[in-house]
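Protocol step 6 of 9: fold each sequence in the batch and record its structure tokens directly after the sequence line. For illustration, a two-sequence batch is reproduced in full.

Sequence one:
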Amino acid sequence: MPLSEHEQRLLEQIERALVDDDPKFASSVRTGDRRLKARRKLQIGALLVVVGFAVLVGGAVAESVPLGVLGFLIAFGGAVLGVLHYRGATGAVEPTTGPAGDRGGASAARGRSGRGSRQPMRNRLEERFRRRYDQ
């Protein structure tokens, strides 16, 4: 749903104030979508894994140990790159863990009541949405 003219003016004023107040932060925020960058790195990682396996197989066919090791290192580097950027690319959320001494008691209770604990946040967001568009 597009913003109204009033909301667009307010947003532009906030952006101008941000640029005037802290230009370095504004430029870092404006650089682009982080999820898009993470997806690109995930794709590069997958490509590196494929290329690495191809070089590894080529090294095995050519009976060249250094070429096989190089292929393994390329594939491993691609896998590491993919794993490091997977969460940012997909928006996946890691489960939160409790303190080191907590072995399932409180965290299991949190797991069972997860839906109930998120409900107030959802209600607040829905209320804000209604207030914004009722005006």
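Sequence two, same batch, same settings:
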Amino acid sequence: MAKLLSDPEFQRFSELQQKQSSFTITPEEADELRDIVARAQKKRDDRAAAMKSIETFIQQFDISPDELFSPEQIGDAARTYGLIPAAKKERSLPPQLTHNGKPYQWTSRALPDDIRVPLFEAFTSGASVKGFIATPKDATRCAATIARLERETGQAYADAWLEELAVSRGQVDEALAKLAA
């Protein structure tokens, strides 16, 4: 009922209903209460008729949901009604490295020594590690790689080398914060 009435109408409805329940309502107030209820019922019926018309037109013209709503709206509705998980999982791939033509994914496990030693030597000596990074165009993965190297060596990567990777210091700091979490 509250959705069908304006705030002042609903407030008056509540007052009149309370008077009615305590048997202190006057005949004029009872008429007023009936009028409020009648307006709410008419509004409900009008809304139901409008929804029925909309449903009919959607069927008649074969309108698909993606013509009415954006993918974000459809996703939000699906999350709201529990059709898909509520939290959007931010999927991030681990850093991918390469050395002597062999690819390595830097997951939570330590890197094998055949890439770890030359990579860490290059990093700690202040040289570029771009040659080790298998996905140099993926700024997020590059930032994650540099963040892990900085965390494990305790040294900062030179800004000139960050520019070479098209990665900002802010991106590396953000990746460091994710690693800490």
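Proceed to step 7 once all outputs are recorded. Observation for sequence two: Residues 96-180 form one domain.
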